[in-house]
Specification:
mainly alpha, Citrate_synthase_sf, Citrate_synth-like_lrg_a-sub, binds acetyl coenzyme *A, single chain, about 50% helix, Rubrerythrin, domain 2, 3-stranded antiparallel β-sheet, about 425 residues, Cytochrome p450-Terp, domain 2, about 5% strand, Citrate Synthase, domain 1
Amino acid sequence: MAKTATLEIEGKKYEFPLVEGTENEVAIDIKNLRASTNGYITLDSGYKNTGSCESAITFLDGEQGILRYRGYAIEELAEKADFLEVAYLLIFGELPTKEQSDKFHNDIKKESAVDEDVKKILDAFPKAAHPMGVISSLTSALTAFNPSSVNVNSEEDMYKSVVRILGKMPVLVAWTMRKKQGLPLDYGDNSLGYVENLLKMMFSRPNSCYVQNPVLVNAMDKLLILHADHEQNCSTSTVRIVGSSHAGLFASISAGISALWGPLHGGANQAVLEMLKAIEADGGDTKKYMAKAKDKSDPFRLMGFGHRVYKNFDPRARIIKKAADQVLHDLGIEDPILEIAKGLEKEALEDQYFVDRKLYPNVDFYSGIIYRAMEIPVEMFTVMFAIGRLPGWIAQWREMRLRKEPIGRPRQLYIGETKRSFVPIEER
Ligand code: ACO
């Protein structure tokens, strides 16, 4: 017999089906709650208990610290796969064969040129503009240059949009950074791998030949993989909800980029580095900042710590911490900020406040240290997160379209004034 949950309201009982996922997680299906109870809704600010969709892309167990893309452990993918393989896996559900992988990469390369007029938009931004705002705008502008991308009912046009955005995003990212630095734009080199090409476009200098550093290529590949998807977080839910109105892929992703920008989400990687630099400038007194983080009258939070879902180690943070050590060692860099980060982590893991609240380092705690070693400007950190998260946003948007999900439209509990009469201005 199908399992159900019983809800009792004022003596009347209502049954709701239980839905089980493939990892034995259980949800109460309340689709018919409002209709069957004559108007009752659930209230769950911040959606701490609300499943917005069924998804076959990413499995996350926050209590045990497990993260898997399409069934594959993040640890294994970070070690053995490359970013485009992971992108293919997330978007299409299986690891690509050699043939599928070559075709995918070639299709992306064919789309890796950006219309020259995009430069005019880029030029219109002041140099001080935050790159996340610029990237969000340029991504949205891609729709104007590729009008067929709004056809969300054709699988063929969807595929074109997918390879287009994967092809053009590295160009937009690199150009945004170069414009800020006053460097001439680089058009990339399609004979290179995806990550190599991104690095070349970001770091080449007009007067010298760019030489790839395998340490940086590996580190970047790993970082992009670790950021590639994380199920229904703030930006991904944004992408899905915007796409649920049948808005095109580029518009949906532009909205996701804006959601990622905030310091409580992807913007935390920039905030972490700024925090570590501030602690260093203040004499490296980690205890002082630990006390501030615990003081409820102080708005300061230990950035890069805590997570809505992980109540255990974020598995990505473990991998990134190791990678940070490796990259700094391989590049021969001694960064005092890494020591401050390690010191903070050690103190936090032993501190009752952090232990009680199950606050562990998240993906952003160590990623900035690697970006800094790669000489990526701090303001670009969240943009690097965005390029990593791109396959996840695409996969989630595509899944939502193929499952023909309804438009996302939450309810609310109105707590404002009840009906009242208009008062003319002279009587107020
Ligand atoms: N420093 C100090 N205290 C914290 C921190 C922190 N970083 N994070 C949570 N807490 C405390 C809260 O004050 C709260 O304490 P209380 O129960 O005494 O009131 C308790 O832990 C629970 O915190 P919430 O804010 O309710 O947890 P929520 O799930 O809403 O927030 C979040 C999660 C936003 C990630 C939070 O931990 C945070 O602000 N962290 C710092 C920002 C950050 O690193 N964001 C990146 C997240 S990963 C990502 O998006 C890619």
